[in-house]
Each structure stands twice: as structure tokens, then as C-alpha cells.
Specification:
single chain, 4 helices, 142 residues, 6-stranded mixed β-sheet, alpha/beta
């Protein structure tokens, strides 16, 4: 389903710099919002010293967002590594219209974030729990 929402060029540029951790894009995460029902923009970004918990705290409780977070973790065999994870935050408590807009526009942002192999959909905070929900999925790709 296409909603006509486009992804801004700055989103793609920032993502490519973020992947390489270059310049001002040595960051932990981005949070993206749909502005005026037409364009995906960067709403917030977290400095490198921020944590996954800071990322979750920056997500609105009752509204949808997209997130991209660079997770540092240990593999099952004890090696330190990191993975970039795309999270679609579509809480059950959000209104129907934004939920439909964000669900229908997800492919547009996913195609702009080339190279992100881990996509997670979350509808409540329990699905954002790092140890119980996120790391088990991410470790499959490590």
C-alpha cells in the first residue's frame, strides 16, 4: 500500500553518514516522523553516548514513529559487535489514521535506508524490551 509519503534527501544522506559513523553523524539513533502527511523527516537524534533506553524514552507514548538504532551487544559466543536496527513504532494507543499512514509508508523509508537488514515492528513497550524482545532477534543476524 502506497500513501504517497516521500523520504527527504537529508534522511538518506544522514543515514549513509550514520552507517560509517562520520562527522556529525557519530550517533546512537535517529527517530523519524511523517511531517504534514507527505514527507519522512528526522525528528530526533541521539548522541553516541546515549543508550537504547534513551532511544525508547524518546518515542512518543501515543503516536507512531520510525526509529533507527545502532545496537552494541555481545554475540552468543561472547564477541562484541553492533547492528543497525530499524524499528517501526506503531503503538496500540495511537489513533487509527496515523497507524494506517505509518504502516502504509514503511516501505518508502525502508527503501531509503539501504543495507539495514533487521526490521522490527513494535506496538507496545513490552515489544521494545531490549533483553526480552530486541536482542533475541538481533543475535540471529550476528
Amino acid at each position: 500500500m502506497s500513501t504517497g509519503v516521500v523520504v527527504g534527501d537529508d534522511v538518506s544522506y544522514a543515514f549513509n553518514e550514520f552507517k560509517l559513523q562520520r562527522g556529525e553523524f557519530k550517533l546512537r539513533y535517529f527517530i523519524y516522523a511523517i511531517q504534514d502527511k507527505t514527507k519522512v523527516v528526522i525528528e530526533k537524534q541521539g548522541d553516541r553516548d546515549k543508550t537504547y533506553d534513551d532511544f525508547v524514552a524518546d518515542l512518543p507514548e501515543n503516536d507512531c514513529r520510525y526509529g533507527l538504532v545502532d545496537l552494541d551487544f555481545e554475540t552468543d559466543d561472547g564477541r562484541p559487535t553492533s547492528k543497525i536496527v530499524f524499528i517501526s513504532w506503531n503503538p496500540d494507543t495511537a489513533s487509527v489514521r496515523p497507524k494506517m499512514l505509518y504502516s502504509g509508508s514503511k516501505e518508502a523509508i525502508k527503501s531509503a535506508l539501504t543495507g539495514v537488514g533487521i526490521h522490527i515492528n513494535a506496538t507496545d513497550y513490552s515489544e521494545l524490551d531490549l533483553e526480552a524482545s530486541i536482542l533475541p532477534v538481533v543475535r540471529k543476524f550476528a
